[in-house]
Design brief:
Strand 1 and strand 2 form a beta hairpin. This protein is globular. The longest helix is centred in the middle third of the chain and has 12 residues. A six-stranded mixed beta sheet has the order 1-2-6-3-4-5, with helices on both faces. By secondary structure, the protein is an alpha/beta fold. The two termini are 15 Å apart. It has a single domain, classed as Spore Coat Polysaccharide Biosynthesis Protein SpsA, Chain A (Alpha-Beta Complex). It is built from four helices and six strands.
């Protein structure tokens, strides 16, 4: 069952929870970001996530390009080129009857390897700080 808080973050689990994780018994956390026409804001969001992930091996970031008409996809692709824990996914239009952000997030969730999913609802302003606190809280809570 999803859990949300005032930040708009949703945490949920996926069926792959029995897989092996890079940090032993720590579950892999997948951060799912739906981006549409975020050319001027997505880079700051990804940089903030990367800073907070420094040295952390139990986090992956999936960025779904929602048919952006601007340079969002190019900005993301350039930034994550040397970051193996980040993946760019091109969304398929109207998958399973879903549209917009819901469509992109559903596609990202299917590709996520983590047993915990983070869906920042106010992308890209969210995640300037706080990721480690959420992750630690989930590990010990």
């Amino acid at each position: 069952m999803p859990v949300t808080d005032r930040s708009g973050l949703i945490a949920t689990s996926t069926p792959q929870s029995d897989q092996a994780y890079p940090d032993g018994d720590r579950p892999l956390v997948s951060i799912l970001i739906a981006a549409r026409d975020e050319e001027y804001t997505i880079l700051a969001c990804l940089q903030a996530i990367a800073r907070q992930m420094d040295g952390e091996t139990s986090v992956e970031v999936l960025i779904g390009d929602d048919q952006s008409a601007d340079r969002t996809r190019l900005v993301v692709a350039d930034y994550i080129a040397d970051k193996p824990r980040f993946r760019l996914v091109d969304s398929v239009v109207n998958q399973a009857g879903l549209v917009g952000k819901a469509n992109v997030l559903a596609q990202l969730a299917r590709q996520a390897r983590g047993s915990l999913l983070f869906l920042p609802m106010q992308t890209p302003r969210f995640l300037q700080t706080g990721l480690p606190e959420y992750v630690v809280g989930l590990y010990i809570g």
